[in-house]
Amino acid sequence: MTTSQIPELKLPVPQSPAFDTDVDADLDVDYGFFDAPAFAKDTLAGWRKLASVIDHTLLKPEATRTQVENLCDEAIRYRFACAMVNPVWAGMASGLLAGTGVPLGVVIGFPLGASLGSTLRQEAAALARLGARELDMVLSVGQLKSGEHAAVERTIRGVAEVAHDHGALLKVILETCLLTVEEKLRASEIAIQAGTDFLKTSTGFSTGGATAADVALLRGVAGARCGVKASGGIRTLADAKAMLEAGANRIGASASVAMVRELGAE
């Protein structure tokens, strides 16, 4: 594992048979402290450290085999946190990354988050068997907005169990641009209680991407219980710096190479 996964900071998460929909219930609980300024300063000290927290991403529907191959080559060359691809390319990418130490990341239920829970579990298991070690799933925004919080929690928990049984990490994409502040808070707590390893801001395919304010809000809920991944519209070193300083410890980007080159990579 890389330092970006901060396993030493992850605290036990209380489990319950049904999600407690009272968002204010746990406000007085100490969920630990993540030192965002110190993490950002250390991460930005050199391009290799920055690369180690970037998910090098290619999720465009028109992405070709050659482009995915190039993505994997770049992930290996710069030692990015993972190479993130669509499910159809998982087997090929897994073969390219095998033995390199660079994990394969794959999205599921992407980009709408409207799949059946059983479909998501099957997809997670199939991709893990193909070699995926990081799975990014989209939360069911419509169910969240409908107040069906227990259903949202059950779906995430089911995928988290599959991922963890296969030794994979789970990141839950909240699609923050579609949520109110209250919904962001509630979605974050639901995902954490369901067992996610990271809260993630955005797919990059909706009406907006990551903002420093949303990253700070997610980190405020997470504390040190899980990671926070900023994704969507992060194209420059300045963008990445803002997200890290706000509390992200993982960045999702397609402009990864350009960002590390700003710090001196060749």
Could you name the key traits of this structure?
alpha/beta, eight-stranded parallel beta barrel, 266 residues, 42% helix, TIM Barrel, single chain, disordered N terminus
Q: How would you describe this structure to a colleague?
A:
By secondary structure, the protein is α/β, with parallel strands linked by helices. It has a single domain, classed as TIM Barrel (Alpha-Beta Barrel), CATH 3.20.20. It is 42% helix and 14% strand. The protein contains eleven helices and eight strands. Strand 2 (82-85), helix 4 (90-97) and strand 3 (104-108) form a beta-alpha-beta unit. It is globular and about 50 Å long. It starts with 35 loop residues before the first helix and ends with a helix. Residues 1-26 have low confidence and may be disordered.
What topology emerges from the helices and strands here?
Layout: H1 36-43, H2 47-51, E1 54-58, H3 65-78, E2 82-85, H4 90-97, E3 104-108, H5 117-130, E4 132-138, H6 141-145, H7 149-165, E5 169-173, H8 181-194, E6 198-200, H9 212-222, E7 227-231, H10 237-246, E8 250-253, H11 256-262
Parallel strand pairs: 1-2, 1-8, 2-3, 3-4, 4-5, 5-6, 6-7, 7-8
